[in-house]
Design goal:
Helix content: under 10%
Order of helices and strands: EEEEEEHEEEE
Number of helices: 1
Strand content: 35-45%
Number of strands: 10
């Protein structure tokens, strides 16, 4: 019988991983020095936008009309603009530099020419009494970066997750 943990999830429990679609082994990057502030909002069961219908101001129907896009973000310490061979930074991954210059988009070319990554958020639960860790996968993500200089310069990753297929979002 599966067991869940009664301990709340805290930022130290989370790990963010970004992958591409290189076959047979995708490129993979575990986000280094992130702040534990991953945020996504607006999730719903159908992952659809809904049209509301009214007749003279009175609601009478609602219909799912199109796939919903989800915006998300997280912040990490800026440890370098670009990495070295075998040691990429988040900027290499998103801007497709150095080791990531030949990365393969997770969105099939038949669906467009924009580049997409897969983002996985894993929350440690098995060390806290649960049967397994929790995972949240967004398979088709357009990513961008914002840099902020300061005493503790940061990089903010912004993303738009698309529901291209039924496996566009998986929570387990």
């Amino acid at each position: 019988m599966a067991t869940i943990s009664s301990s709340p999830i805290v930022s130290a429990d989370g790990v963010l991983t970004i992958t591409d679609a290189t076959s047979p082994t995708p490129l993979s990057y575990t986000v280094a020095y992130d702040m534990g502030d991953f945020k996504i909002s607006g999730l719903n069961k159908a992952n659809k936008e809904t049209a509301q219908f009214y007749s003279r101001g009175k609601f009478f129907a609602a219909r799912d009309v199109k796939d919903k896009e989800f915006s998300f973000s997280f912040t990490a310490h800026l440890i370098g603009l670009l990495g070295e061979t075998g040691a990429p930074t988040i900027n290499d991954v998103i801007l497709r530099k150095k080791d990531w210059s030949a990365a393969v988009s997770t969105l099939p070319t038949a669906a467009g020419d924009t580049f997409h990554h897969t983002l996985t958020w894993t929350a440690e639960r098995s060390n806290l009494g649960a049967t397994t860790d929790d995972t949240f996968v967004l398979k088709y993500c357009e990513l961008s970066v914002d840099w902020a200089e300061g005493d503790g310069s940061t990089v903010t990753v912004n993303g738009i997750a698309k529901m291209y297929s039924t496996d566009g979002m998986v929570i387990s």
